[in-house]
Amino acid sequence: MVFTKKSLLAMCALTVLSCQPVQAAKQGEEEKSSSLTMKPAFLQAPREIGEEILKYAFISSKTDITNFREIGTTLSLVCKDWNKTIAKNAKKWVCDYFNINKKDEDVFWRFFKGKLIYTDPQTNAQTVLPISSLPNPLSGEFDLSKCGKTGEDLSINVGYRKVHNQANTSKIEIWFTPTF
Question: What share of the chain is helix, strand, coil (3-state, %, to 5)?
Answer without folding.
Answer: 55, 10, 30
